[in-house]
Structure formats: structure tokens, C-alpha cells
Design a protein that fits this description.
This protein has helices spanning 20-25, 43-51, 66-77, 105-117, 119-130, 137-148, 156-168, 172-177, 197-204, 220-223, 225-241; strands at 4-8, 30-33, 59-64, 82-88, 182-187, 209-213. The chain has 242 residues and is α/β, with parallel strands linked by helices. The chain has one domain (4-241): Alpha/Beta hydrolase fold, catalytic domain (Rossmann fold, 3-Layer(aba) Sandwich). Helix 2 packs across helix 3 (66-77), helix 4 packs across helix 5 and helix 4 runs antiparallel to helix 7. The protein starts with a strand and ends with a helix.
Length: 242
């Protein structure tokens, strides 16, 4: 029987962006796509709403960006349901502080203001940011734009609520105390999640498996699809054997 793998998208994104990554994963797992993160500014409520969409079968969680934060929260609060967590381009504390790398607060709030002023234009710029530093970035950007356009953009209130969630969420203690296995897949040139976060996360959770992919921006699942799938397969296979 295939293991169940639940995919959680990032901020402002939806299940349509996964593309062939989800298709390839479905060869090895029973893949469940969460269409978009619930429009809430309370991470417990987000996780609760997602768990209601799933049956009682235990599962693995893969979370991209903000989806990774939700995955950590769900693993903490539903330990009998979550068998393992895959963090894809994720920072458990997205906004930087004096002791933690991340996006500067002033920059984050300026981005939030841009969303208020013109959500559609800001999201298009956000797609460009995700592809920044990727070889042949124009091609990946066009693909990402096409996938993003395959479904309706989330309404402004949903985007703002989830940004509020992203600003305040701090799951460092959750990562430290996490009981289930966890793997992190990061890119060395991600414009949104600094690669240095990997080693810092390992100081909190020494059992965290860390994989750094070169020049994959914020979209390693698109740039290095097979590499990411192989990492995920090895991670879950290792858990099954133990």
C-alpha cells in the first residue's frame, strides 16, 4: 500500500503550481493536494481546517514556504496522524530578528502594503522573486505564471490574513520538540528563505535531515523535480524501514 503524502502550498499559491512534481510523487505515494491554505490568521485554526479535509489514515506532510509552517504546527498538534514532515523552502520563523535569519520586518511590512495597494501586480512580482537566481529563470517564470493562472487568485482578505499569519508565526520551539522525523530541502540562492537557516534549524533539531540544492531559488520542486522526489522517497523509505 502506498503511503499518503499531503502537499501544502505556500502563501498566495494553490495546488495548480505543483505541476509535474505532484504527478511524479503520485507514482510512489497516494498524493493529496490541499488546494490552498485556509484564509485565517491563526495557525492552529489553519491546521484544524486542513485536518478536517483528511480521513483518519496517518500521513506525511510536505509544506512549501508558509505551508511548511503549517506542517510543523500540525505535526505538533496531531502527532498520531502525522508520520513525518518535509519542509520545502521553509523558515519556521519567517521574519528575521536579532538571533534568527529571515526577511527583515520593514521589508515584510512594505510587501504587505504593496499587497493592499495592488494584489495582482504584487503577486506577479512575487512569482518573479521566487524564480530569482534560477538558471533559465525566464522559462521557469513563464511556467510558474501559467500554473498560477490556472486557478483564480485568492481574494485580498485571504492574502492579507495569511500574511499576518506569516509575520507572527514562530515555530522554533515546535521544531525543537518535534517528535516525528523531519527533512528540510533548501536552495542555496533562495531570495525568501536564506540557506543559512538550514544549519540553524539543525541546532534546534539535531535529527533534522538537511539537503541543499544549488541555484533552485524558492522553487526547488520545479527546478530540481527529480532530485526533490528522490530525497522525499529516501526519507519516507527510511522511516518505513525503522
Amino acid at each position: 500500500m502506498k503511503e499518503r503524502l499531503v502537499l501544502l502550498p505556500g502563501w498566495g499559491m494553490h495546488s495548480g503550481v505543483w505541476g509535474d512534481f505532484a504527478e511524479l510523487l503520485s507514482q510512489y505515494f497516494t498524493v493529496t493536494l490541499i488546494d490552498h491554505l485556509p484564509s485565517l490568521d491563526n495557525i492552529d485554526a489553519v491546521g484544524d481546517e486542513i485536518i478536517e479535509l483528511l480521513d483518519d489514515e496517518p500521513f506525511y506532510l510536505l509544506g512549501w514556504s508558509l505551508g511548511g509552517s503549517v506542517a510543523l504546527n500540525m505535526a505538533q498538534r496531531y502527532p498520531s496522524r502525522v508520520k513525518g514532515v518535509i519542509l520545502l523552502a521553509t523558515n519556521p520563523c519567517f521574519v528575521a530578528n536579532e538571533a534568527w535569519p529571515g526577511m527583515p520586518l520593514a521589508m515584510f511590512r512594505a510587501f504587505t502594503q504593496q499587497v493592499h495597494l495592488n494584489a495582482s501586480t504584487t503577486l506577479q512580482g512575487f512569482l518573479m522573486l521566487q524564480c530569482q537566481g534560477v538558471t533559465n529563470s525566464h522559462e521557469y517564470l513563464e511556467t510558474l505564471k501559467a500554473r498560477f493562472a490556472s486557478k483564480e487568485m485568492l481574494p485580498l482578505n485571504a492574502l492579507v490574513q495569511n500574511l499576518a499569519l506569516l509575520e507572527k508565526v514562530d515555530l522554533r520551539d515546535v521544531l525543537t520538540a518535534l517528535a516525528c522525523p523531519v527533512v528540510a530541502i533548501l536552495s542555496d540562492n533562495d531570495a525568501l528563505v536564506p540557506v543559512t537557516i538550514g544549519q540553524v534549524m539543525q541546532t534546534l533539531q539535531p535529527n533534522l535531515q538537511l539537503h541543499i540544492i544549488e541555484k533552485a531559488g524558492h522553487i526547488p520542486f520545479m527546478v530540481q523535480t527529480e532530485v526533490c522526489v528522490n530525497i522525499i522517497c529516501a526519507f519516507i523509505d527510511g522511516i518505513r524501514k525503522n
